[in-house]
Every structure is written in C-alpha cells, then in structure tokens.
Write a structure and sequence with these properties.
The complex is a heterodimer.
Chain A lengths: L38 E5 L9 H5 L5 E4 L2 E5 L9 H5 L5 E5 L9
Antiparallel strand pairs in A: 1-4, 2-3
Chain B lengths: L3 E7 H12 L3 E4 L6 H12 L6 E4 L3 H14 L3 E5 L1 H6 L1 H9 L5 E6 L13 H5 L6 E4 L3 H16 L7 E6 L7 E7 L1 H8 L27 H30 L6 E4 L6 E6 L2 H14 L4 E6 L1 E3 L3 H8 L4 E6 L10 H10 L8 E5 L9 H15 L9 E2 L4
Parallel strand pairs in B: 2-3, 2-4, 4-5, 5-7, 6-7, 10-11, 10-13, 13-14, 14-15
Antiparallel strand pairs in B: 1-8, 6-12, 9-11
Helix pairs in contact in B: 1-2, 1-7, 3-5, 7-9, 10-13, 11-12
The chains are: A mainly beta, B alpha/beta.
Amino acid sequence: MKWDISRMNEWKTDEFPLGAVIPESGNSRDYVTGGWRSMRPERSDEKCTQCLLCWIMCPDSAINTADEKVTTYNLKHCKGCGVCANVCPTDAITMVPEGCDLPEVK
Amino acid sequence: MPTQKTIAATGNTVVAEAMRQCAPDVMAAYPITPQTTIVEEFAAFVAKGRVHTEYITVESEHSAMSACVGASAAGARVMTATSSQGLALMWEELHIAAGMRLPIVMANANRALSAPINIHCDHGDIMGARDTGWIALFAETAQEAYDNTIMSVRIAENESVLLPVMSCLDGFITTHSIDRVQVMDDESVAGFVGEYTPANALLDLENPVTHGSFAGLGGPYFEFKKAQREAIERSRKVINDVGAEFSELSGRPFGMIETWGMEDAEVAIVVIGSTAGNVRHVARGLRDAGAKVGVVKVRCFRPFPFAEIAEALAGLKAVAVLDRAESFGAEGGPLFLEVRSALYDNAERVPVIDYIYGLGGSDVKLELIESVYKDLSDIAAGVEAPAGLVYLGSR
C-alpha cells in the first residue's frame, strides 16, 4: 500500500514517522525533480551508436531504454546536468535551453 | 540478584567490559587518546571471540560515526567511543544520529580541544556537542562509567526515547586511573539490557523503509525537531526509571543529580564529573569544622535536570558552579548557564558564581575548592562577592 501523505499538513507531531523514516522504499520516483532543469538533452538517432554510456552515467537514472536501446529521456527526473552529453563518444547528445517553453511536469 | 565481583581496573577497562556485556552487533571506532584503550580492549574481546560484534575499523571519527549511523539504521545495536578532536570530527553525524532517532551508545573520554594541543581532561569537547540532540550522562568514577554505559543502552533503546546516548568520563583522571569497581556477571547485564528490537530496520526486507529523507522546501523539518524535543523530554522519566531499576540490581544509587549535605546546607558547589569527589572531600572537612556546606553533582547534563537543580538549591545563601569548559563570550561556562537559568523561577534569588577550572587538565587542588567555599561563606556573611566569572587557580 502506498504511504498516504495527502493529509500531512494536518498531522500532529506524533503522527510524523520516527526519525523522518518513510515507511516504504523506492519513493524517489514520486519526487519530481525535472522542474529544476534549465537545459534539456536531445539525441540524434543518426549519430547515436547505442553504446549506452549515457545510460550508465546518468546520475538520476533518467534515460529510458527498451530492448537495450536508448529511447527517450525521463524529463520528470532529468535535472539537465549534461553528463550524458559530456560522456557521449559520438557527440550525439546536445543540451538545448528550455527557454520559456518549460514542459508541464506531472 | 547479580553476582558482583570487585576488581581494580581503569575507567576505560570497565567501559570496554560493560560494552562487551551489552553485546553490540556493531562497533565502528577510531582510536584517540585518552579513549583508545576502550576500543582496543573491546577489539581484543572480539578477537578472542568473547563478544560477537562486527568490528569496523575506519579511517577517522567522521567515518566511525557514519558507519554507526548506517549500522544503526540497518537495525543493529551499535556502540563506539571517542574523545576531543574525534568528537569534534563527528559533529555532523552526531546531529544525524539524533535526528534519525538512532539509539547509538558512545563513550566519550572528556578531553580538551586544540589549540593549543592538549590531551588532558576538560569538558570542552562534550559541552561543544551539548546541542546535538544526544542524551549525555557523566561519570564521577570508573564505577559510574561502568554503570552509566549499561544504563545508556536501556535509555537509548527505550521505545519512547530512541535517541543516542553519550556516556562521558573524565580523560585520564577516570579513564586511566585504577579504581575499585564492582562488575556484574554477564547474565545479569544481558538480562538488564535485554534484546534490541529496532523500530525501522533497513535489513528488514519484508518491510522496506527509506532512511535519511528530505524534509525541506516547506517540508516538515520543524515538526521533526519538535518530535525530537518531545522525545528528550520523555527521556527524563526513562532515565530515572532505568536508574532506579539499575540501582535495585546493583545496589548503587543513581540520580540525574546526586546531592551531599544538602539537607541543611547554606552554601553549595555544583559540579560535574571526577572533581565531585574532591569537592565532597573538602566539604566533609568543612562540615566537621561546623560549616553548613553541600555538594550537588550533575550526573545527567542532557536532558538537564532543571527542576531537580531548582529544588536542591532553593533558599541557599550562595551557590558556586564549577565549569570545566568555556563558552567564550557567554555569561559563564555551560553548566553555569544551565544552573542559573534553572534558578530563575525560584521565588528567592540565590547568588550564583561561576568558576572555570581545570581546563586542559590543569590541576584541581583541594586548596582551590576550599577557596571557593571561602568565597561562598563570605557571600553568605554579606561580604562582597567576586565580580563575574573566576578562573580558578589561574596565574
């Protein structure tokens, strides 16, 4: 069962979990950090050799794959750090400004 | 009742013995004078198979407390020991251990902080850590260091507390002097501390949890700190209850404060740690000569026994506080600030003088303590009091 924090603003002191322990694991998925981003990675299918170095190096595990191939970026969690573009041996990834056109994060 | 054996041993030896008897799952430690022999003797117990503890040797105290935090979050009973610069290097993890509500037990051999470099006793290290959220017990003797170590486990692991506990003993004076100590049998200690059942063990794979979460950006950090305050307030009752239970078992008294001659005292000295014995010795002599003097020893500094101090010192003609630590630029040393604050709500105003003494192991001669009682009797007789704090015995 998911940990219900919808009423957290109404919690009394003794309702907060001991030592700020969250009684479930893997909840960082629910914490959307993509909104911090000012630059977004874009990948060229032509240049990409599918070496997966970006997938290995991404500190936020924000590179989606299918059948061992890079597909899209998880923009809910990509902070735009640019590590992927930096390590790409074929310069297939370009960091482009988000500008004023920030995508809606859900 | 336990079988007790009287031995001649140093404070560090009996702290290591108490730790062995409490059987921690993990110890992560780094050596530092004058604590080293605690973790050294404990390592020997591990090597000889006399305790089944995972002993983690680390490269610094920062790592030692980090490993303790990790092991405790994993669900282990964890102990360590440190001193002075080592405690200072643990600074950030001390707060983390308390904030994560991990019942780690640590011995601290009270020692001066640099600079200048010094390895001898004062309370500058632990007093600097007084706001980290740890419960802090102080020992006067090797016996109290042994007893406090065992009680610390029960206090820390009590489900209404779940906070780390520091058990402090005076560097060299208590850690390295051979003293007469009554040591209990292993079964009695094991029975007293009991089995530890962690609240949120990371290694409980059936119930996965997240430790070390983020509570910023408008999150409930403030509420977690309030919960921590409530826990240390609840610990007052637990400390007294555990102390009473341990007293019954061991036949030795325990109080958050311990008083001598306070029934009819007109003046008193408040003191922490090994110097309490010297003060009692001097007070006994003065009593024999007819002076109504008393001694208040503080055995638990965090939580601070405000009500007990206020009651013990109410109606006195003068009080001296002996501080073995500085709080530069403050009105006095850390103990003075607490004691005078505790007296503020009493109807009658009692003059309180602060004496800073014994920094860096500076000798605490009996004449110095006599001079403090002389000052107090002067104040009681209406003679002008020393103005401001006194550096006792300084040149």
